[in-house]
Design a protein that fits this description.
By secondary structure, the protein is an alpha+beta fold. 41% of the residues lie in helices and 26% in strands. It has 4 helices and 6 strands; from the N terminus they run H-E-E-E-E-H-E-E-H-H. Helix 1 packs across helix 3.
């Protein structure tokens, strides 16, 4: 199981990631583009912007843990049903989908060093 605090820490560990909010929902952005959200109190879990194909695959494979949202462009993740390592992997995918190429290149350079 992952917690809201762990989600925040993970999300903010990515280059240029910042926390903001909209409609009382905490969100995480890179250059004003949202890659993840946490609903108030974590009651709905988190939302990740993974794209339609990845979202559909996960929602179909584990419907109790994952649900498609916003026409399939985002994935709702139930906190109580996912481990930290699995969530961290999905969060990184969401961040990568939003981050500019220069930010990704810098991130990759630091990871390989």
């Amino acid at each position: 199981m992952i917690t809201e605090d762990a989600v925040r820490k993970l999300a903010l560990s990515f280059p240029e990631a910042v926390e903001s909010s909209h409609f009382e929902v905490a969100d995480f952005r890179v250059r004003k583009k949202i890659f993840a959200t946490i609903h108030p109190g974590g009651r709905k879990g988190a939302l990740l912007r993974l794209g339609a194909d990845r979202t559909a695959t996960l929602a179909d494979s584990e419907p109790v843990t994952f649900q498609s949202a916003f026409g399939g462009s985002a994935l709702i993740v139930q906190f109580s049903r996912i481990g930290k390592a699995h969530y961290a992997h999905l969060l990184e995918q969401a961040w990568r989908a939003i981050a500019p190429k220069k930010v990704l290149a810098a991130w990759e350079g630091r990871r390989k060093a």
